[in-house]
Design a protein that fits this description.
Layout (H helix, E strand, L loop, with lengths): L2 H15 L6 H16 L3 E8 L4 E8 L13 E3 L5 H5 L7 E3 L6 H11 L4 E10 L2 E11 L6 H32 L9 H11 L8 E8 L3 H7 L1 H18 L5 E6 L2 E5 L6 H15 L3 E3 L2 E3 L3 E8 L6 H17 L5 E3 L2 H17 L8 E10 L5 E12 L3 E3 L5 H6 L3 H21 L7 E5 L2 H4 L4 H11 L7 E6 H6 L1 H13 L3 E7 L16 E4 L1 H4 L6 H17 L2 E4 L5 H9 L4 E2 L8 E2 H10 L7
Parallel strand pairs: 12-13, 15-17, 17-18, 18-19, 19-20, 20-21, 21-22
Antiparallel strand pairs: 1-2, 1-6, 2-3, 4-5, 5-6, 7-9, 7-12, 8-9, 10-11, 14-15, 14-22, 14-23, 15-16
Helix pairs in contact: 1-2, 1-5, 7-8, 8-9, 15-17
């Protein structure tokens, strides 16, 4: 090879050495410009073979054609539709020279359509990656040109360098694809989503930017029933439906598990985003066939908006996440649009969770007591221990504000044990002073406590520690807990009964399936749920339920207590139908321990209705 050709190859190698996926086209174009000048040709081009499409794709050309047609006939040329010259490029292994002659008329016509130039001669050199032809390097001379063997050898060396660059670019693009896409579904991943939203929410970008957060309801059941392979297949099918159903260039990302986010690529207000969410929800609800099973899962969707320059990516996704949690908390299969109220509730919950972790050791818990009264005489027959939390900034909180959070972070059992020990200790202190010796202390038990190993022994040990007589303590469990696991419940309740502990079913009437099991459970008391008591005297439907519960208690010889008595009409209705014991604001609000001791010392409260 002449020295001048060696210098050209060396120059090209130097140019290509630093080429990356981002610069490869510009660098290649510069190389083509240098080669066009050196070889004295009119046009040079670099094309790559897409063996998936079976097509030749234009990478770079020099000079760039002015006024490129749309569509460009040279941008993508499918081999099956190509003339014989182009078709050779699919598997070409050696350089080929074409000169103006009848056998190349089709090729001359294609070039003329793309460049509006007369008859040409051309040298085509394949780019080889192993045994695969990955592209072609071409040089066109208007008119005729002969190519020497030394020139073709130099072009083969240059083509080899370009093939290496192309392989490097392909590897970079593959790595970028893997870095930005979910390997299960092919959708964008969290990283790509965050990058997209960062760009969309930048100052000066059009808005608002909407985000739809999808969370499948109860996917775990599919994994448990059919296995994780079936669950993955289900996810892939839904991802494809989401891709098709979006009907637009929206960004669709899988965050992991069964969570997806759709970001419309144009500004969209809340109403339009909510409408899109409902449409996609109906698409995802269609059944999927897996292993002969026709399965379907509902989906909860949270919708949120962000304003460019004001809201960050984390702001937008946090709101969408809060909205989807609201949708799932409402039973699932819902679309919820973020509101400021959701934000306040979430802030409150986070505050509760943050401080709840240390609430017991900080001594911030205390007990109030709700008296239980015989409405015929005013006699105080029992009191129910109710936990309160003296929050550092929010004041005195009732259980409804924090028990749900405690259950979600596995603190319910710890709280329950604190309540039991504290109530028993305080009750024992009262009785040691001769107060409340005939009364019963009622203590609520969480579902977690009831199924904990050694629960019965713990309760018996606590009563023994504080020397509380048999029958002086009653544990309250909700009716819904009874029906969840009737056999375990029956064994536990039998153990409590043997230890001298009374048992009451709280909120009775809300879970009717417990009625058939009642006769086989060692229960002492039924407490009528407040929802049936509140409107007594005005709602005949509530009266019918209460009368049925009263009859049931009489049939099984059980004590009966009405909760939530707040009106004289309710109190008189209960008395008239045979329910004498009650608690509620009409009789007394929950009071602190010292006040409860004083009330027990008096023995009764005045009743005038």
């Amino acid at each position: 090879m002449p020295e001048s050709l060696d210098l050209v190859v060396t120059s090209v190698a130097t140019r290509l050495m630093g080429a990356t996926a981002a610069t490869a086209v510009d660098v290649s174009q510069g190389v083509l410009a240098e080669l066009v000048e050196y070889f004295g040709v009119d046009v040079s081009f670099l094309r790559r073979n897409d063996h998936t499409l079976h097509a030749s794709v234009l990478v770079a050309e020099w000079p760039v054609r002015p006024g490129i047609p749309d569509p460009d006939p040279l941008a993508i040329v499918y081999f099956q539709d190509a003339d014989p010259v182009f078709a050779l490029a699919e598997h070409q292994k050696e350089p080929v020279v074409f000169r103006p002659e009848p056998s190349t008329d089709d090729y001359q016509r294609t070039i003329n359509e793309g460049r509006q130039i007369p008859a040409t001669s051309m040298a085509c050199v394949p780019l080889l990656s192993g045994e695969v032809t990955s592209g072609v390097l071409g040089f066109v001379k208007f008119g005729d040109r002969d190519w020497t063997e030394a020139e073709l050898n130099a072009l083969k060396a240059i083509a080899s360098l370009l093939a290496q660059v192309q392989a490097r670019v392909d590897a970079e693009e593959q790595l970028r694809y893997l870095a930005e896409h979910d390997d299960l579904t092919g959708l964008y991943n969290r990283r790509a989503l965050l990058s997209h939203l960062d760009a969309r929410l930048a100052e000066g970008q059009p808005g608002p930017v909407s985000a739809l957060f999808f969370d499948l309801d109860r996917l775990k059941a599919i994994n448990d029933y059919l296995g994780h392979t079936a669950g993955d297949w289900f996810i892939r099918v839904l991802a494809e439906r989401l891709r098709r159903g979006a009907e637009g260039p929206h960004l669709i990302a899988r965050l992991g598990g069964d969570e997806f986010v759709v970001v419309p690529t144009t500004p969209m207000d809340a109403d339009a985003a909510e409408a899109l969410a409902h449409r996609l929800q109906s698409v995802l609800r269609e059944r999927v066939s897996i292993d002969g099973e026709m399965l379907t899962r509902t989906v909860s969707i949270g919708v949120a908006l962000g304003v460019p320059g004001r809201d960050s990516t984390s702001d937008l996704l946090r709101r969408a996440d809060q909205a989807v949690l609201t949708a799932k908390g409402s039973g699932g299969n819902q679309v919820a649009v973020f509101t400021d109220d959701m934000s306040m509730k979430n802030e409150f919950r986070n505050d509760i969770e943050l401080h709840l972790q240390t609430v017991i050791e900080n001594g911030a818990l205390l007990l109030h007591y709700l008296p239980e009264v015989d409405m015929r005489t005013g006699e105080i027959v029992a009191c129910e221990a109710l936990v309160r939390w003296q929050h550092p900034t929010r004041g005195l909180l009732a259980p409804d504000a924090f028990i749900g959070v405690a259950e979600s972070i596995n603190m319910a059992g710890e709280l329950g044990r604190w309540v039991m020990r504290t109530a028993c200790a305080e009750f024992a202190a009262w009785r040691s002073r001769g107060v409340g010796t005939d009364a019963v202390m009622r203590i609520n038990v969480s579902p977690v406590q009831l199924v904990t190993d050694g629960f019965v022994e713990t309760v018996a040990g606590t009563m023994a520690e504080f020397d509380l007589a048999r029958g002086s303590v009653c544990l309250e469990i909700t009716e819904s807990v009874v029906v969840q696991d009737i056999e375990t419940t029956r064994i536990t309740l039998a153990g409590l009964k043997a230890a001298g502990v009374q048992v009451a079913i709280d909120d009775f009437g809300t879970g009717y399936s417990a009625l058939s099991q009642l006769k086989s459970l060692p229960v002492d008391t039924l407490k009528i749920d407040r929802s049936f008591v509140r409107e007594l005297g005005s709602d005949p439907g509530d009266l019918a339920i209460v009368r049925a519960i009263i009859a049931l208690a009489e049939a099984f010889g059980l004590e009966l207590v009405a909760e939530g008595v707040e009106t004289e009409a309710a109190a008189l209705t209960l008395l008239r139908h045979g329910c004498h014991r009650a608690q509620g604001f009409l009789l007394s609000r929950p009071i602190a321990g010292a006040a409860m001791e004083s009330l027990l010392a008096k023995g009764r409260i005045p009743v005038q209705f």
